[in-house]
C-alpha cells in the first residue's frame, strides 16, 4: 500500500450527477427543471464533469437528455450505464468522454452496490473493448473489495469508482466505529487500486458532513456526487450547493496534506 503523501497533489475533481433534476421533471411530465441547464450551472459553480445515468427504464435521464448534454457541454460527460447491448450502442453513437458501467435492477431505488466483475470477467472484457476503441474512458463502479478491483484491472478498465454507500450510511446512522472502519477500508482499497495503476474515483452518498475524509485520500482523483447536491439545491440553489461541496473537498485535501492543490 502507498503511504501518506506529503508532496504536491493534483486538485480533486468533482463530478456532478444531474439525474435527479430529471426525476423532479418527470414527476410532472413537463420540460422543467431542465437537466442540461443544471449541468451548465454546475459547470460555472466549479464542477469538473457531469454524470448522467441512462437507465434501461428511463426513470430519470432520457435519450433526449443525453443528446442535449452532448450538444451543450464543454465539460466531460460521464455516461453511466448498465452493461447491455442497448446501452453500448447508445454510448458508441454519442462517444462521451467517459462511460461508467454500473449494476442495475429495475426494482431498486438507486444503485445498491458495485458491479460484479469477478464473475463476469470474460463478458465485460469483450463488452468494454469497443467502447475503448471508440475513445471512451471506461470506468467500473465496484465495491471497495480487493477481488473486484483485481478483476477490473484484469479486464483492462483504466478507472474504478469505489462505492462509498456503506461509509455514508454508517455516518448518517451515527455509528462512528463502523463509519471509521469503513472509511479505513475505502482508503486501503483506493491505495490498492492505485498501486495496480488504476485511476481511482469514489461516489454514492457523499454529503457535506462526510466528504472531507474521502477527499483526503491521496489516491483518489475524482468524487461523483449527485442526489445530495440536488436535494441541497432546493434550499440554497444549485450554484451555492456545488460551490460549498467544492470548498469542502478542497479543505479536506489541504487538511490531509497541507498546502494548495496543484
Short description:
The chain has 262 residues and is an alpha/beta fold. It has helices spanning 19-28, 35-45, 63-72, 85-94, 121-133, 146-154, 165-173, 176-195, 211-215, 227-236, 238-257; strands at residues 13-17, 49-53, 77-81, 98-101, 137-142, 159-163, 199-203, 220-225.
Walkthrough of the structure:
This protein is α/β, with parallel strands linked by helices and 262 residues long. The chain has a single domain, classed as Aldolase class I (TIM Barrel), CATH 3.20.20. The chain is 48% helix and 16% strand. It is built from eleven helices and eight strands. The chain has an eight-stranded parallel beta barrel with strand order 1-2-3-4-5-6-7-8, surrounded by eight helices. Helix 2 packs parallel to helix 3, helix 2 packs across helix 11 and helix 7 runs antiparallel to helix 8. The longest helix has 20 residues. It starts with 12 loop residues before the first strand and ends in a 5-residue tail after the last helix. The N terminus is likely disordered.
The percentage of residues in β strands lies in 15-25%
Structural class of the secondary structure composition? alpha/beta
Helicity range:
40-55%
Second-tier CATH architecture: Alpha-Beta Barrel
Low-confidence stretches: 1-8
Give the N-to-C terminal Cα separation: 23 Å
Q: What general form does the structure show?
A: globular
> Would you give the CATH topology?
TIM Barrel
What is the domain tally? 1
Largest sheet: 8 strands, parallel, barrel
Give me the side-by-side strand order of the main sheet. Answer: 1-2-3-4-5-6-7-8
Give the full name of the CATH homologous superfamily. Answer: Aldolase class I
Tell me the Rg in angstroms.
Answer: 17 Å
What's the CATH first level? Answer: Alpha Beta
User: Helix tally?
Assistant: 11
